[in-house]
């Protein structure tokens, strides 16, 4: 009987161990109810590292820095150490003269401050492509400015990257120039894998046309999983915008979040991420970001090593101890899909609301009207210039066809990335800056490369199409991709 009791006790203990250690988690076997969970980095699963980057500046782009600040709070609460979280943001929002709550940034209509405690690793002009890639590769010798913090990861470590910004086919914005091209990002990811300095990497990307950053470029076998806010040929959406439901507090005249971003972060805010997988979150975020399949939504995509999606989110971003007893239910995170605004139009919405709210005859009203008209003038110039270049090169009908061509799924945007970068420089030399709005035309320029156009032909067509261009800040060469 004694042997039987010992056998049952041993079997019971082993059963508990099997349940607790299901998957890759290796927590303490038994805890008393009064014991506090320790969600700091666990040596048995390696160190968690994170890079958070907002690729824009300007108060009209408030939402991107708000997204990144919110993400930082999730990671910090989840147990990641500050020295393992690298934050890139221009940091011109919290104390911006237009911010109605000085020193505070919010990411939801409830108005909880997400700015407090966020480290200022790379701000201002230190938010640039070279520093981002150096930080990712853990190369302290290549970092210029900022805190000098890099992802100094090892072979058993896991890395989480979250990037929120404007984008276009094959390109992501930066508050400084040049912008980040898809081939350069993917080459950096391949180099990071070749160095053997991580076990797995998860990349969340918020931007228009964000699928094009990985489509046909991110191979399997790198232990990298990426998910994007939109497909390779569609816009992403801002949310919590003035005049929309649910709207930000009345004193705000700018969008304070992005649809895809708040979907994954608000899900993290309420779930036990030890038991929720990346795949489960992907499905919830995909449903919410589609906005009930309404036209003001986008298709969330996934690329790379999809089997990594069965990992628990805890392995990359920790979890809030307060959510320990939360039972996962697929319906629990399906908050009502909010009204959304095209990311490319969010600045116009901001200028319009500033104009509408400003007193008649005031300098504020004049300034808002000027900025709105400058933005519209620039947009019309860029749109017409690209169309005209296509027609000069290929004729009236063929030009439209070439410009609007979309390659089949699985193929990268362009075959020759050097050609694309050269053509962008050529366009901006003759026609002024593409700017964040003009990113939408990167596919058209890539199509010219794919069609065999030479740079001499591109220069001649650009010169013919753009005898002049608007002299406002939106069109200035100092705002260009390559300046």
UniProtKB/TrEMBL annotation:
Enzyme Commission no: 3.4.22.34
Keyword flag Ligase: no
GO molecular function, one term: cysteine-type endopeptidase activity
Source organism superkingdom: Eukaryota
Signal peptide bounds: 1-26
Cellular component GO terms, alphabetical: vacuole
Pfam families noted in UniProt: Legum_prodom (PF20985), Peptidase_C13 (PF01650)
Top class in the EC scheme: hydrolase
Keywords assigned by UniProt, alphabetized: Disulfide bond, Glycoprotein, Hydrolase, Protease, Signal, Thiol protease
Residues annotated as domain Legumain prodomain: 371-466
Record-linked InterPro entries: AE (IPR043577), Legum_prodom (IPR048501), Legumain_prodom_sf (IPR046427), Peptidase_C13 (IPR001096)
Active site: 166, 208
GO BP terms, alphabetized: proteolysis involved in protein catabolic process; vacuolar protein processing
Protein family membership: Belongs to the peptidase C13 family.
Protein name, per record: Legumain protein
Species of the source: Helianthus annuus (Common sunflower)
């Amino acid at each position: 009987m004694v042997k039987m009791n010992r056998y049952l006790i041993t079997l019971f203990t082993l059963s508990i161990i099997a349940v607790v250690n299901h998957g890759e988690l290796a927590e303490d076997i038994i805890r008393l109810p009064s014991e506090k969970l320790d969600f700091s980095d666990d040596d048995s699963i390696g160190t968690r590292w994170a890079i958070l980057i907002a690729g824009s500046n300007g108060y009209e782009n408030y939402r991107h820095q708000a997204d990144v600040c919110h993400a930082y709070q999730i990671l910090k609460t989840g147990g990641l150490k500050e020295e393992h979280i690298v934050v890139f943001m221009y940091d011109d929002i919290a104390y911006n003269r237009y911010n109605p709550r000085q020193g505070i940034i919010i990411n939801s209509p409830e108005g909880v401050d997400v700015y407090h405690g966020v480290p200022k690793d790379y701000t201002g002009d230190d938010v640039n492509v070279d520093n981002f890639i150096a930080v990712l590769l853990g190369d302290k010798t290549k970092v210029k400015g900022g805190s000098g913090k890099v992802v100094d990861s090892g072979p058993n470590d896991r890395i989480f990257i979250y990037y929120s910004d404007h984008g276009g086919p094959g390109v992501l914005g930066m508050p400084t120039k040049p912008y980040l091209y898809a081939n350069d990002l993917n080459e950096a990811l391949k180099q990071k894998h070749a160095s053997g300095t991580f076990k797995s990497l998860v990349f969340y990307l918020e931007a228009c046309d964000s699928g094009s950053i990985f489509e046909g470029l991110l191979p399997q076998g790198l232990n990298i999983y990426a998910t994007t806010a939109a497909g390779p040929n569609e816009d992403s959406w801002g949310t919590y915008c003035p005049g929309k439901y649910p709207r930000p507090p009345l004193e705000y005249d700018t969008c304070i979040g992005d649809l895809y971003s708040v979907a994954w972060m608000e899900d993290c805010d309420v779930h036990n991420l030890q038991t929720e997988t990346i795949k489960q979150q992907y499905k919830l975020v995909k449903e919410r970001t589609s906005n009930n399949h309404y036209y003001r939504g986008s298709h969330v995509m996934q690329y790379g090593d999809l089997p990594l999606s069965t990992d628990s989110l805890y392995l990359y971003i920790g979890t809030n101890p307060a959510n320990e007893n939360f039972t996962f239910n697929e319906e629990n995170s399906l908050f009502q899909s909010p009204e959304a605004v095209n990311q490319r139009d969010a600045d116009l919405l901001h200028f319009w609301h500033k104009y509408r709210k400003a007193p008649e005859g005031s300098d504020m009203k004049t300034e808002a009207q000027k900025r709105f008209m400058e933005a519209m003038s620039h947009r019309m110039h860029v749109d017409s210039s690209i169309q005209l270049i296509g027609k000069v090169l290929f004729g009236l009908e063929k030009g439209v066809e070439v410009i609007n061509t979309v390659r089949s799924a699985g193929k990268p945007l362009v075959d020759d990335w050097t050609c694309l970068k050269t053509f962008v420089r050529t366009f901006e030399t003759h026609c002024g800056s593409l700017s964040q709005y003009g990113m939408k035309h990167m596919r058209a320029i890539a199509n010219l490369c794919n069609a065999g156009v030479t740079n001499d032909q591109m220069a001649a067509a650009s010169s013919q199409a753009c005898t002049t261009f608007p002299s406002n800040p939106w069109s200035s060469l100092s705002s260009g991709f390559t300046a």
